[in-house]
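Suppose you are handed a protein chain with no further information: no name, no annotation, nothing but its sequence. What can you learn? This example shows the usual starting point.
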Amino acid sequence: MQTAVRVGSWLIDPSLNNMSAEGKTVRLEPKVMGVLLCLAGHPGETVSKEQLFQAVWPNTVVTEDALKRCIAELRRAFNDDARQPSIIETISKRGYRLIAPVVVPITSTTVAENAVSDSIVVLPFINISGDLENEYFADGITEEIIDALAQIPDLQVVARSSAFSFKGKHVDLRIVGKELNVRTVLEGSVRRCDNHLRITVQLVNAADGYHLWSERYDREMKDVFAIQEEIARGIAQRLKITFPWNARPLIKTGTPNLEAYQSYLKGRAQLYKRGPTLSCALACCQQAVDLDPGYALAWAGLADCYTTLCWYGLAAPKDSMPKAMDAARRAVALDSSLAEGHGALAMAATLGTWNRVEAEFEFLRAIQLNPKYIQALDWYALFLQLSEGRLMEGMEQAKLALASDPLSDYAHAVYALTCVFAGETAEGVMAGRRAVELSCESFLAHWVLQVAVWLSGRFEESVAIGELALAMSGRHPWSMAALALTLADWGKASEADAVYCELQARARRQYVPPALLAVVASAAGRGDEAIRHAFEAYEIRDPNCQNFFSRYSHWSTRLYGYARFREVVVQMGRSEWLRDPLPA
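A reasonable first move is to predict its three-dimensional structure. Written in structure tokens, the prediction is:
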């Protein structure tokens, strides 16, 4: 049972590992949620301890204490008295029984047995206009149709990155259907000439290539949102999927200004690429909000640009992070139903203001509004691990993103990192290799694999992968930090010191995140310089502090060996990092 259920007055949401009632939300550990779901699957029945062990800990030997702890956590969450229970009853020497009423809400997303039959991938629409600038426009239309279809509870929709992995490729649709485990494929083309727009779509059965439905739309540019709405509803009707919200539109007209819309689409496309294109993405999103100050989605995009620029070390935090927070708050104020706005605010709170409470609240709100918002799922996974130390929960969160976007190198890379932090190094290496396979040009994929291989103890291989990551990224500080730490663990102290000297020389000419300088200095054994950089990182609120100084990351192990570094941790307001043990 993986659908939302109501137990008594509580709404249980397995996708978020939480339960809520009367404005109160309680998060549960994955195993605790597993016990609850097993009990909820047999309401009013005695569920034996053996059944619970098999459902929650399959093929694993655990003590009865683990089950008792989960039951105790559930009773604490429900405020239930074991002596006079209203939720969970203990059946002596046998097991437990859920005595509260269990209801599956009509509006919840139920995973049906024939989920694959109601599934679709929207392939990138082909731009058949003469102007290559219209490529952004065609991609934007594709993505918005994906987002619209994803709102339909009974339809499984492949996420953007996996769908776009087929861009520019002539692939047999039967292969696409098999690889993504979907039954239907939507493909289309976009031709734009001045103010005229022609969009052609066809829905195909992936099993045999049979055309289920096709349509051509000849309209003016101002009708672009209406066309997207018609396409989404046409697909749902053809697949015989009903709408529980009656006349509510699937496509939200974010702006009536078509120039602002096109600027935003271009900015979003550049943002996905990361790296040097981030400056272009920032300019495009800024132009979009200048043209329409009420364009919430563009404000969210602008916030993400500022946050990502600073996170990657391409801009100093002094100016960038306040602008990111301001843009994110504007996005949420303009449209509180926008998952992208809440996701942008969560990221800005995590990296900019270091407000953990606000960050988690906004992450959960973004995921609630769009359970398949990959960026929010993945960033929340890293937040859970590196900020909160909930290592296995973060890994499970990243696995949710991977399930929705199975051909995404980004989703595989983040999952690989979460595996490494959770101690599942072998699985992390496998996921990292898959990320590189999916995108041999991705710096992030190579860097994650470099880290995973380093932590598996294969130092020579990690250095070789790191050289590739350094070459394709212009010797990015993240990769230099991983290289320095690998060399230090390998016993090559002088080479680790050379990496630090190189990064230090660069810092005299341009901005280098001081948190990274602290990490590399610690690898070089330069304790005083490491502490100096660490204090500077705290003083300027370097976003990299939140991850690279975390007790739960492996980058900070040497730093925690310095007594004065602990002063930095205390000033950051993270005294709990000093109490918890270092990662293995």
